[in-house]
Write a structure and sequence with these properties.
The chain is 37% helix and 15% strand. By secondary structure, the chain is α/β, with parallel strands linked by helices.
């Protein structure tokens, strides 16, 4: 699937949601693709053309999602990718572009479609109410960075509608301090063909996954826009300072997006 930035619906070009039958067909095709994903090689290297990245791009294409990338791809190497968090789709979008492992809340493992995909992608599931789970995850994530494999986290700790940025939790930034690996800030935004905002794609307020997924199936087209910012090196910084620096970068972008 090629990267595109062509989807910018104006009030006169916005489209209606897909019909029940068209959503159903799209859902069945998506389910079939997810099943085929069980046989996709899951080795995570440094090449964004690895089989799992291609599988994610194909899945997004089935969902009517176009990828639009702004900014320069970083030099090859390991990074702690940090991003704002809007939707269950975020994992697919980032994994389509970067060969990274994820740290995610353990509840995601139980989600249909995304849960199985996340497990197959080697996601590290974090039990947020268990301190032992956090330290285990921190250790595994540090080990990955030391092996020159990137890790992605959503330091807000939860999803938002995409209109604002929550404070960052700083714990996972410690692995950059320990390994010297840089932080790579990413900002995600979705543009819907029906209303021009992230709202149809956002997954918030304890909404059921089924309802969110069905609504997303009804979107004729979605532009998933990813801004890549320059890496932030941790030299001479504490984890809180590093987290604050990444937050400021994404907050400035969020404020700009709110004025568009």
């Amino acid at each position: 699937m090629s990267l595109s930035s062509s989807l910018s619906p104006s009030s006169g070009s916005r489209r209606r949601s897909l019909s029940f039958s068209r959503r159903s067909v799209r859902g069945l095709r998506t389910a079939a693709h997810v099943a085929r994903g069980l046989f996709v090689p899951k080795t995570t290297g440094i090449d964004s053309e690895d089989p799992l990245s291609r599988w994610c791009r194909d899945l997004l294409s089935l969902l009517g999602v176009e990828l639009a990338l702004t900014g320069e791809r970083p030099d090859p190497g390991a990074y702690l990718l940090v991003s704002n968090h809007i939707s269950w789709m975020d994992i697919l979008v980032i994994r389509a572009l970067f060969p990274t492992r994820f740290v995610a809340k353990e509840e995601i493992a139980l989600w249909p479609v995304i849960g199985s995909s996340a497990r197959e992608a080697g996601t590290l599931f974090l039990g947020r109410n268990r301190l032992s789970s956090f330290f285990d995850t921190l250790h595994f994530a540090r080990t990955l960075l030391e092996k020159d494999l990137s890790v992605c986290v959503f330091p807000e700790g939860t999803t938002t509608s995409g209109t604002h940025l929550l404070p960052f939790r700083t714990g996972m930034f410690e692995i950059c301090i320990a390994t010297g690996k840089p932080v790579l800030p990413l900002y995600l935004r979705y543009v819907s063909a029906t209303c021009g905002s992230s709202l149809p794609v956002s997954y918030t307020d304890n909404e059921s996954f089924a309802r969110s997924f069905w609504r997303t199936l009804g979107e004729p087209r979605i532009s998933a826009r990813v801004d890549i910012f320059p890496p932030i090196t941790p030299e001479g910084m504490t984890r809180k300072e590093l987290a604050r620096g990444a937050w400021r970068v994404l907050q400035e972008r969020a404020l700009l997006a709110g004025t568009l």
